[in-house]
User: Fold this.
Amino acid sequence: MDEVVDVDGLLDALIEREGGYVDNPADKGGPTCFGITQAVARAQGYAGPMRQLPRSEAEGIYRRLYWLRPGLDQVASRSGRLAAELFDTGVNMGPAVAVTFLQRALTALNRNGSDYPDLTPDGRVGRATLTALDTFLKIRGASSGETVLLRALEALQGERYLRLAERRPANEAFLYGWLANRIGER
Assistant:
């Protein structure tokens, strides 16, 4: 598939969902701006007040750490919808978690290894993951296979949100928003 993904559009939609500066005491991540945690901003060289994080800086961080570094540009060349879902999940849960969801779903859908070998869920988009994705989409059909993979990714994501709320009651404050804004069509 030669899909063109509007990464700038994904960034705009993400930043719109994330909003501006937030310092919710129930959030273990501490202060955020445009969804970027203070720890991530500092690790990327931003030293100013989080309330003043420039939008362009947040966009750059998202592009580098959550799109390019995990290899979602390579997924996007095969399926823009899958790459967009993995990007959003990665921003909220970490890119390695999102890619692990993809690897787990591909392994569960490989008909006991008859379509392609099981993947090691290592959270990295590499040759094996891309080959499995290519094979899956070829065998199952680009459109229907993509839809099934999206459903599997969202099921894994939803289960993780519920588990986070069950394990840490303070996360219940976020559960409704996670399910409303992170699962399904946006």
